[in-house]
Amino acid sequence: MQRRQCLALAGAFALGAARPLPVTAAAMATTAAMAAIEAAAAAFPDFNGVMLCGRGGSVLACRAFGVADGEAGVAMWTDARLEAGSVSKWIAAMVVMTLVDQGKLALDTPILRYLPDYRADSGARITLRHLFSHSSGVPNDIAAARKADPQFRFVSMDQMAAVKRYASGDLQFAPGTAWDYSHSNWLIVKAIVERVSAMPYADCVARFLTGPLDLKDSGTFTGESSAVPRMAIAYARPQAPWERRLSPIPDYMAMAGGYYTSAPDLLRLMDGVLDGDVLSTASRRALMRVVMPAQHYALGGRTRVETIGGTLREAAWEDGSNGGFRLLARRVLADGNTVIVLNNTSFDYEKLGRIGTMLLDAAYR
User: Fold this and answer.
1) What is the rounded CA–CA span in Å between residue 88 and residue 198?
2) Which ranges of 2-86 would DSSP assign to H, the alpha helix?
3) Sheet of 219-220, strands arranged across
């Protein structure tokens, strides 16, 4: 090859190297997610916690704001553990669906088959599907007891003793005919799960969910979550004077509100359950199928069709709170676009929803 040709080729390679590389779709999604989080933080400067945007099982952007422990001056970090509140019920439904896949439980079998010492008249009519969808008619006696006596939250009790005391009242309506958000449902479900699995519920969570998905910052707790290592503390506000706002969860209520997680862990969980192989296809569909349309309520959580990014999309629609903790999780079922927002300073629910909307809409710009 002549010297002139070599120089021409060298110049061409040099010019090619100088050209900017094409922007990939993944890079664009990451940039959009980071910009959306920055915009949400600017719009809500009093937010204290973690915001995450993801797609499938991949984190696009995750930022921590404020403090995890205001009294000790510990800043929030992206893997901090926070309580999941009522999203614990969705976790419980996932555990039960693994037992359905194993053939140990069935959603539409009367619960008396699994819990023969439950009252016979109600137990012959109620099914797990009723309990999961808050359509059982079991009155919310546990909530009334907690409200009447604040010290009640610190009292230990055997699971069946709790069921007989707080989840065995006369049915308020025929199962399947109405909706009432009753925490007492979950006392019954926990008794059934522990009976058929021959394991404590915490062990079921570890064996069926957190273990297989390698979730290092998730699990169940009893009492005050502040005893859990690497756990953020819940407060009444995001600044001093620091006033703790904790609400202890006795073990017999673990399904109703005793789960904790981090934002990255929750993304992995949602991806593993909704798009992975944790559940069979049939169980995954059952988990997300709406049972009570007026409430968008499926099994332990909600599935909603909402305008997201200007288009109607079906999404898992999860919210939880306990004490000063707040959690929001949204996942578009068709494409896996996900937002997760965790807060530990009693953040306003309406504001939390607006943050979720901002972050999820950004995925479709």
Assistant:
1) 21
2) 3-18, 25-43
3) 82-83, 259-261, 219-220
